[in-house]
Amino acid sequence: MDGMILCDKPAGASSHDEVLRVRRALAGAKTGHAGTLDPFATGLLLVLVGRATRIARYVLTLPKTHVTTARYGALSSTGDPDGEIVQTGRIPPDPPAMPTGAVRQRPPAYSAIRVGGVRAYERARRGEEFEMPERVVHVHRFEQRWREDGERGCYEIECSSGTYVRSLIAELGDAYCESLRRTWIGPWTVDAADGETLIPLGDVLAAFLPVVLVEGEQARRARHGALVDVDADGTVVLADEDGPICVAEPREGGGVKASVGFRR
Known about the structure:
Elements: E1 3-9, H1 15-25, E2 31-33, E3 42-49, H2 56-59, E4 64-72, E5 74-76, E6 85-87, E7 101-105, E8 114-115, E9 118-119, H3 120-125, E10 135-148, E11 152-159, H4 165-170, E12 175-185, E13 188-189, E14 198-200, H5 201-206, E15 211-213, H6 216-223, E16 236-240, E17 243-250, E18 256-261
Parallel strand pairs: 3-12, 15-16
Antiparallel strand pairs: 1-3, 1-14, 2-3, 4-11, 4-12, 5-6, 7-10, 8-9, 10-11, 12-13, 16-17, 17-18
């Protein structure tokens, strides 16, 4: 039982809650997720099952698309409806400046990033004063879909992993995320999420990584984590007639070597 289940996380539940639901349904199978959603947010959560949990770090690098509704004229301590709301009445222009490309942002204090070894939201809840480290993220697309009575606006944002949509909305002016829904991660869409269907590991890998077929001695070397004589410009999946053997990375001097193995 190795693969991935597309889930549509409901509002109010944590990502961990959804993983536990899947784990119970699969009688305790090993599970994990690739990309946290805040409790107030909804949308696509990728739950990895069995040996697919080993590829989380690759799935986490995939771009994501969100649809968010911004509430103007107010600030939130958390950037969402769960925070302390302060009405300011200051409304950003229509349309506001919507940055794309490389964007330097400071994640919200109420986030899961570790600062000094402690989750930022834990320090924020204790009332500690600290500075969140800036990071550079990439916004591939930032579009305003509609504007309503000057009080709300809806945006579709395609961005790199690690981007905080709450911060992007806060930087539009006096605004916060009233709702947030993740609609895509890499090639997968929330429209296909039924919370039950297991996508086989081989199909998951082939959806976002090139697959190279190997056989004989090359397949044996791949299974044992040895250098395999394959030309590749980036990460690949080595597979044989029985399915995926490993995820492999190029090595200096040529060839690829397993970074994540699935068989011996």
